[in-house]
Design brief:
The complex is a heterodimer of chains A (636) and B (301). By secondary structure, chain A is α/β, with parallel strands linked by helices. Chain A has 19 helices and 26 strands. Chain A is 30% helix and 26% strand. In chain A, a hairpin with a 4-residue loop joins strand 10 and strand 11. By secondary structure, chain B is α/β, with parallel strands linked by helices. Classes of the chains: A alpha/beta (636), B alpha/beta (301).
């Protein structure tokens, strides 16, 4: 009988959970509708209902609004919006699929994070006629934040761009450009038209230049078995069976790794040790257990173990501590409150906890880090959490099961946040704001001094070493002056180099953003490098916006006041804007945030060594003025 | 297939077992809602597995309308006894007395008073803080959005727009006295998964699921089996046809479908080529647009 064979195949199917992101405008509903329909995931009566409802809305037959299938709540259908994540199911002879369909507009962060938390693949829709929009970046960011290992970019509406390979390639390149910054291992691009059915479930003749699989083909074939962590054995004890005095079994779901009878195990956080006696699976004794099987474990020794404890291999342990850093997605209308008492649920352990610090929040559209005091609904931030009891965890990037937690409000009992623990950072190295420690640097230097005296270097090189520090608003002309000055000094036989905002941001400070803390850190690093160069006898020209008086003072103190020349490069706001029109336009529209002079302060130097107005002076004149100052100081 | 690969049914099974254990660990007084249908049979099997070698550490609750098929009552009593489960049967006596004989009952009335109100009374009288049910997300649109751990306020109402976010397999079970949860371990199963699991695990189900010659009459677009209080009204034609049931409910509202499927593989074959979703044969869902959602808000399962 055919059905028996069918059942056999069915039993061998793997399960792939994926999340779809995009709005109705991208054709997401049509795409899902087509996947469901062509794989027979929609029943006829549901289809009839959709046709009926679509008719009401005046849609034509194949342009059915499949959102009417996915939008389950009455309010959603009435208002034509999707409020919540909807789960849809279909299967092909190869795999069973669960789609978490997340709305593109309203509350997208909260909903997409929810859908993404259990997904191993995300389908990001891009409208070929629109190109990669902010929204696609946002979706990819959340997808990577939630640790989804595979991403498919469905470049939809190819019919609107005449199935142009060029348009497709451009979108791929554009997307790959920023996807590279995200930690997504596997990105696949597929040109589709959900409306016309090209490359969704069947290959299109209109894209002969495309050799890859159809969307469904890829979903069926993408290798997911390797996504599970089979190395780090983690067994959070979920339930201790009490009703049988002869049998003390610890029941739970194996989060990761492989467990075998006879394994030496350690109980965390107590540290007690024993061996695995037996593992009972759902169908009897097991010689080997792997995730995500539900098992019951007995140990050789009688030790005190309760729900929330974790069994691990002695030589491969998670971190056990009550203080850690995490990325948090805030999910409540009530904003996050620092130091307020919350409850954290992590694996099977629940503990009172507080968010003791908020390092920064992330603008999901630009991926910039911003300073913040709180997180509002749908905002994402990096926090430090301190719990009353230690948790046993791994970084989320290595282990989704033991790196994830939820935050619960003690009063409303609502789930208000979802967290992903960051890679282990020893507590004493936790970033605590400013890293400037000028006095400390001095005392360290005194402990060991170079055998080459500064005078020896000066005589060998033929000039003293010093730092010219150019500060000023964006567009004031710092960099132009810096490189002209470098040329002039070099022509005079001076060994000189330039450090500027651009070249440090590309390398030395690539990990930093534009918050006050990060700007300060950028200046600290630049000052350290300038000092090293000075110490080896070289002259350094630093061209940095350096908007904060305190940072410039710190730099001066670190390098040494006698070697430090603060030059304020000044220009009228209007001039600056004229010189960098695009930059200022973005700053004013809010696309770039924390922009000095527009959305962040610029503290004008009160007593610079020299102030140059680039409105009045050409670059060469400015350079002359600086050289004059240096000569007057007997440095060249 | 790699060595540690896991099949989709194993994965669904593991998820359901995790949910059962989470309920047992985090609630004071949980109960399993048992409706005698095929999904309930699967639910019981999973509960057995979750607590093996121990017994299922919570009672089963059957909210009985008294209008079920005889085969269902027989099956219920025999099967629960066989597996040693603790069965509680609840009937809304006040409503049954008030409305009186079966002729006075209609499907909406039964659904409201005996199912919804009956369930609410049973749960509040039993003081249960968690009720595990066999509902699946693929059954109906509003269920596609319901959480696995679905919060109910002290009036047992469901607030579809104010649901707690549910991420990973970390379930927030916090609640105050009087508040409760409905828990759905089969959320991610489809009808085919249920049948496939019944087949591979050899789970017993009520014989009404198998095709047999049955005497039926046509009413409200449904095929209702005659017997008990279902008697032909004037103008209603009675005929004997080969048929079976895709879902089981009350005699008042459960229609049969013409079918020749006498064995599980035959049923599965029928399901796999089915082009109609299974709830179509239940009058209860078809009152009006969003009817299931309305019922759920009021506390219906």
């Amino acid at each position: 009988m055919k059905v028996l064979e069918l059942l056999k195949t069915n039993e061998k199917k793997e399960l792939l959970r994926f999340v779809t992101a995009g709005s109705v405008d991208d054709g997401k509903s049509t795409l899902i509708g087509r996947l469901l329909h062509e794989s027979k995931g929609i029943y006829e009566d549901q289809l009839e209902a959709v046709k009926l409802a679509s008719g009401k809305k005046g849609s034509s037959l194949y342009e059915l609004d499949f959102a009417l299938v996915t939008d389950g709540l009455k309010a959603e259908r009435e208002q034509g919006i999707t409020i919540d994540v909807a789960y849809r199911y279909f299967s092909t002879p190869k795999r069973k699929f669960i789609i978490a369909d997340t709305p593109g507009h309203e509350q997208y962060t909260r909903n997409m994070a929810t859908g993404a938390s259990t997904a191993s693949l995300s389908v990001i829709l891009v409208d070929a006629s629109q190109g990669v929009l902010t929204q696609s970046r946002r979706h990819s960011f959340i997808s990577s934040l939630l640790g989804i290992p595979h991403m498919v970019v469905a470049v939809n509406k190819m019919d609107l761009v005449d199935y142009s390979e060029e348009v497709f390639r451009e979108i791929c390149d554009d997307f790959a450009g920023f996807a590279a910054k995200l930690e997504v291992r596997d990105v696949t691009f597929v040109p589709v038209s959900a409306l016309k059915g090209d490359n969704v479930t069947t290959r299109s003749k209109k894209t002969p230049w495309y050799q890859g699989p159809t969307l469904l083909g890829h979903l069926e074939e993408v290798h997911i078995a390797g996504d599970r962590n089979l190395i780090d054995m983690r067994f959070p004890v979920q339930y201790v069976s009490r009703d049988n005095p002869d049998f003390r079994g610890y029941a739970g779901t194996l989060s990761s790794g492989v467990m075998r009878p006879g394994d030496k195990v350690m109980v965390l956080p107590s540290g007690n040790k024993s061996r695995v006696a037996e593992i009972t699976g759902v169908n009897g004794a097991l010689k080997e257990a792997f995730p995500p099987l539900g098992i019951t474990v007995t140990l050789e020794d009688e030790i005190d173990i309760s729900r929330g404890d974790m069994l691990v291999h002695e030589n491969n342990r998670p971190r056990v501590t009550n203080k850690f850093e995490a990325m948090v997605v805030w999910m409540s209308e009530t904003p996050m409150k620092k130091s307020k008492g919350y409850i954290v649920k992590h694996t099977t352990r629940t503990a009172p906890a507080a968010i003791t610090e908020l390092r920064y929040k992330i603008d999901v559209d630009t991926m910039h880090r911003l300073e913040a005091d709180t997180l509002a609904l749908n905002e994402i931030g990096r926090v430090v959490i301190t719990s009353n009891r230690p948790l046993c965890f791994d970084p989320y990037s290595k282990n989704r099961s033991t790196g994830a937690f939820i935050i619960i409000d003690r009063v409303s009992d609502n789930t208000v946040g979802a967290g992903m623990i960051l890679d282990r950072i020893p507590e004493d190295q936790l970033y605590t704001g400013s890293k400037w420690d000028v006095a400390g640097e001095r005392s360290n230097l005194e402990s060991k001094e170079s055998m080459i005296k500064p005078e020896e270097r000066r005589d060998a090189l033929g000039h003293s070493s010093f730092t010219v520090w150019l500060t000023g608003a964006p567009g004031a002309g710092k960099t132009t002056i810096a490189y002209e000055l470098e040329r002039a000094l070099f022509n005079n036989g001076v060994n000189v180099s330039v450090l500027d905002g651009e070249n440090t941001r590309l390398g030395l400070s690539r990990d930093l953003d534009f918050t006050a803390d990060d700007r300060s850190e950028n200046i600290r690093r630049a000052a350290q490098v300038a000092k090293l160069l000075n110490d080896s006898g070289l002259v350094t020209i630093c061209a940095f916006l350096s908007p904060y008086e305190k940072d410039r003072k710190n730099a001066q103190e670190l390098i040494g006041a006698e070697k430090f020349f603060e030059i304020h490069v000044a220009a009228e706001q209007e001039t600056c804007e004229k010189r960098r029109p695009n930059l200022y336009a973005k700053a004013k529209s809010g696309e770039i945030s924390n922009f000095s002079t527009i959305s962040a302060p610029y503290e004008t130097p009160k007593t610079p060594d020299l102030r140059i107005s680039t409105d009045e002076h050409a670059p060469s004149e400015s350079v002359d003025k600086i050289i004059h100052l240096l000569k007057r100081s007997n440095l060249i | 297939m790699t060595k540690h690969s896991i099949k989709h049914l194993d994965q669904l099974e593991a998820e359901a077992i995790h949910i059962f254990r989470e309920v047992a660990a985090e609630f004071e007084n949980p109960v399993i809602l048992y409706s005698v249908g095929k999904d309930s049979s699967v639910l019981l099997k999973l509960a057995q597995k979750a607590f093996y070698p121990g017994k299922i550490p919570m009672p089963l609750l059957h909210v009985d309308t008294t209008f079920k098929f005889d085969e269902m009552y027989r099956f219920r009593d025999e099967y629960t006894k066989e597996i040693g489960a603790d069965l509680i049967v609840y009937r809304n006596k006040e409503a049954l007395e008030e409305i009186g004989p079966v002729e006075n009952w209609t499907c909406p009335l039964c659904s409201d008073l005996l199912k919804t109100q009956g369930l609410i009374k049973a749960l509040s009288e039993g003081n249960y803080d968690a009720a595990i049910g066999g509902a699946r997300r693929d059954e109906e649109r509003s269920r596609a959005k319901e959480r696995i751990f679905s919060f109910r306020n002290k009036f047992m109402e469901w607030d579809p727009k104010g649901q707690r976010p549910e991420l990973w397999d970390i379930y927030n079970t916090r609640h105050k006295p009087g508040e409760s949860f409905r828990v759905f371990p089969l959320s991610n199963w489809t009808e085919l998964d249920i049948w496939n699991y019944i087949y591979t695990e050899e789970i017993p189900i009520v014989p009404l699921y198998y095709a047999s010659e049955r005497e039926v009459l046509h009413r409200d677009g449904m095929l209702l089996p005659t017997g008990g209080f279902i008697k032909p009204r004037e103008g209603e034609k009675v005929e004997t046809i080969m048929c079976r049931f895709r879902t089981l409910g009350c005699r008042l509202c459960t229609g049969a479908i013409p079918s020749k499927a006498k064995t599980l593989p035959e049923i599965i074959e029928e399901v796999m080529i089915a082009r109609k979703s299974e709830r179509e044969h239940r009058a209860v869902d078809q009152d009006r647009d969003g009817s299931m959602e309305e019922k759920k808000k009021e506390g219906y399962f």
